[in-house]
Amino acid sequence: MKAAKPEKIFCMRRSDIFRVYYLFLPVFSLLLLASCHSSKSVTNKAHSGYDRTEIHVGKGNSFQHRLIEEAYTWMGTPYKYAGLSKGKGVDCSGMVMRVYEDVAGRKLPRNSARQAEWCETIDAKDIEMGDLVFFATGKDPDRVSHVGMIVDDDSFIHASSSKGVVVSKLSNPYYMRTFIKFGRVPRKSLSGD
After folding, report:
1. Whole-number pLDDT of residue 34
2. Is residue 132 assigned to a domain?
3. Is the terminal CB of the chain with fewer CB neighbours within 10 Å at N or C?
4. Could you tell me the residue range of the domain that residue 134 belongs to?
């Protein structure tokens, strides 16, 4: 009886592992930089900017307070593209979708561009606590790729691709430059109102 030849086991040298790692690192980085980017373009840019003096967010009603309170429970959650898990990872549109789902029982569209199309466009003078703010943070200055939720006259909560869920200032020059529009989730679709 012939002795069986030992099977060759696939092994990679350490240098090969690093070579593969460095080949996939740029691809992975590009995916992360895509953030909440959507392929659908918003063709009718509602605002080319806004006068910050127009914004006077009131005290809000109990429903609006519940929205903001729920949004704050997401603070510190790391950013994860297409993520939906509080404390584990979420992207901007996922956080907004989950907050409205948990508080109002209404599921919003999954990506920021679809949310922008679905929401009623509102003027800066009419925004309220819990309304949404949309930005074009990708390469196309007319394409919605980021969303946050209005907290007060100068603050919004969102999932930043670099910091996770944080509160940022509307007056930040970056957000002033990339601003697209304010939007309101249609009232008729909310059960918690």
Report:
1. 44
2. yes
3. N
4. 52-189
Evaluate whether residue 47 is within a structural domain.
no
- 128 is a domain residue: yes
Query: d(Cα 64, Cα 69) in Å, to the nearest integer?
Result: 9
Pick the catalytic residue: 36, 37, 119, 146?
A: 146
From 36, 37, 92, 119, the catalytic residue: 92
pTM for this predicted structure: 0.75
Task: Read off the CATH number of the domain in which 130 is found.
Answer: 3.90.1720.10
- pLDDT tens across 57-100, in order? 888 999 999 999 999 999 999 999 999 999 999 999 999 999 99
From the list 36, 37, 119, 158, the catalytic residue is: 158
Please give the tally of structural domains in the chain: 1
Our answer to whether residue 92 is catalytic in this structure is: yes
For residue 37, indicate whether it is catalytic: no
